Amino acid sequence: MSTALYRRYRPESFADVIGQDHVTEPLMQALRTGRVTHAYLFSGPRGCGKTTSARILARCLNCEKGPTPIPCGVCDSCLALARDGSGSVDVIEIDAASHGGVDDARDLRERASYGPALSRYKIYIIDEAHMVTPQGFNALLKIVEEPPEHVKFIFATTQPDKVIGTIRSRTHHYPFRLVPPLVLQDYLGQLCATEGVAVAPGVLSFVVRAGGGSVRDSLSVLDQLMSGSGDEGLTYQGAAALLGFTEGELLDATIDGFAAGDAGAVFRQIDKVIETGHDPRRFVEDLLERLRDLIVVAAVPDGASSILRGTPEDQLERIRQQSGAFGPGALSRSADIVNAGLTEMTGATAPRLQLELICARVLLPGASGENGYAARLDRIERRLEMSGATPSARTRPDASVPQPPAPPVSPPAVAPPVGARADAEPPPARGRPVHEPPAGPPPGAEPLPAQAHPAPSMPGGIDTDAIRRSWPDILAKVFTIRRTTWTFLSEHTQVLDYDGTRLLLGIQTEGLATTFRRGQHAELVRQALSEVLGVEAVVEAIATVQSERSGSRATAASPSPAPSSAVTPPPSPVSPAIAPSAAPAPAPARPGPAPERASVLGLHRSELPRRCSEPGQRSPRRSAPRRRAPGMRAHRYRSPPTPWSALTTRTSMRRLPWVSRSSRES
């Protein structure tokens, strides 16, 4: 019967301990300088060398040439404490799990008063110290605080927080850690070479993963594989089957199905996982690790071999090929979904169902909301690169075909302000026809062929209709950012136009439009538009009701067209006193109420009603006869309908003290 590997290769000096340099180096330095304290506390995960280091420290302290950092290995004390030694009566190991009571602590305190039998020190190694009861620790407190000169205490535990603070404060605490995978893998390779066992590539990585960084657990797994190996040594298939890891071919097929979006292939691999007896949770763990490898290869394509040291070269090349089929956003999103699913599988009663749901989420980019946008962009970019598609150029006229000269474009006529018709030109005389030139082309002229002006192509095929169709989604995104803006937009806003760089929104009133411009609503809409459609545009807003009113006023202010056969009469002479603003070119309009005031001053009194429309006010009575402009005949008072703005401005001017009486009467 052979001895277990972890017993046959137990370290006998601090130099043989792997992965714990932060502990061994200070201890060796303390032994060199003679600054060894009376009590130590070694803590850390299981199988990382706590008890072994305690035995090595006891061996160094009781060596005939010591205290020394390197035991001689030939003295009686070193031989007794060696790997195959019988032990020493002066080094007492106590299992606190079965000797942690008050009586055991009292017995230890009584025995510690006696001196060592053969060695320099009497050393107590208390393993699993967290199992000592609080009463037992209190019983040991006095002797641990002030022990005799020949007594040393070494506590080893996996849960240092359960050791009472009064004991911890009287010891030197050294925390042990798990051994790094690369260091542990190299150590296992040396042991296999010493044992003369052939190891296939990838087997030791399975052993390290199964051991979880614990040297003792990894040696136990390796010992199990060696016991069942044949002449060919440790094979990859045998290790994967025995340890329950997923085979590389199964992971490759699953990753290829994800990359191609082939749901059938992915679910066939899931069925194979279940039929072959694999643990679904272990398969998800292996899948998450493979996605991690893909992310590393995508981030560091040239230095991936230095990071994934335990990966065989052929598998590393296959990982590079699989990484090229994904984008960074798709890989990150897939890893997030698998990681969340792995957490949800803890304690699941239907692990296969959980596994199928995880794969379904990975296959559907839209299932994860915002996290799926990066994956969609990766797919679009990848398809564009594969197809070589470029944005279509705008349609241009053929240079070989002569194009007719474009007719001169006259500037559009601007409608005069409301109530300013009398200032611009006098009204035509009643009964005289007005001649207007015909609007059609002159006779004999050939009509120009209509040229097609294609609409400019929007980025990504997004136009105004697309924005309107996606407007509910944009509002939903705004709702997640700021609910106040969502309420404002959903009740008062509509999409008017989008030209590729600017999104124009229509808001019901001018006050609401001003509120939209002053706040951060435009920036929030721009952000939602960018996240939902990937479009960067400037967001502007105008008042739709105000613009409609302005258009209707301009239409009402323009004179109705006369018959085309009428003749235009010469303008009637108007006195400068009556119409001071009549000029060849109208004066530029000033902002504010000034245009309306000027129009009121230019109106004739016959065009104003006798009484103001405002309730509670009357026009002042005048006894002087009414004056009228020369050339205008007298008629009964029937004034034409006057705009409301003219009436209100006229009435307000009567209230102002600085308006002269002559100005009011004119």
Give a verbal description of the structure.
The chain is built from 29 helices and eight strands. It is an alpha/beta fold. The strands form two sheets. The protein has a five-stranded parallel β-sheet with strand order 2-3-4-1-5, covered by helices on one side. A three-stranded mixed β-sheet has the order 6-7-8. The longest helix is centred in the middle third of the chain and has 20 residues, at 280-299. The protein is elongated, with a radius of gyration of 47 Å. The termini are far apart. Residues 389-457, 546-620 and 644-654 have low confidence and may be disordered.
Average of pLDDT: 74
- In whole angstroms, the N-to-C terminal distance is 129 Å
- CATH fold topology of the largest domain: Zinc Finger, Delta Prime, domain 3
Percent strand equals 5-15%
Widest sheet: strand order?
2-3-4-1-5
Number of strands: 8
Shape call: elongated
Main sheet specs: 5 strands, parallel
Which CATH architecture of the largest domain is right?
A: Up-down Bundle
Number of H- or I-type helical stretches: 29
CATH class of the largest domain: Mainly Alpha
Name the structural class: alpha/beta
Q: Spans with pLDDT under 50 lasting ≥5 residues?
A: 389-457, 546-620, 644-654
Number of domains: 4
Helical fraction equals 40-55%
Rg measurement, Å: 47 Å
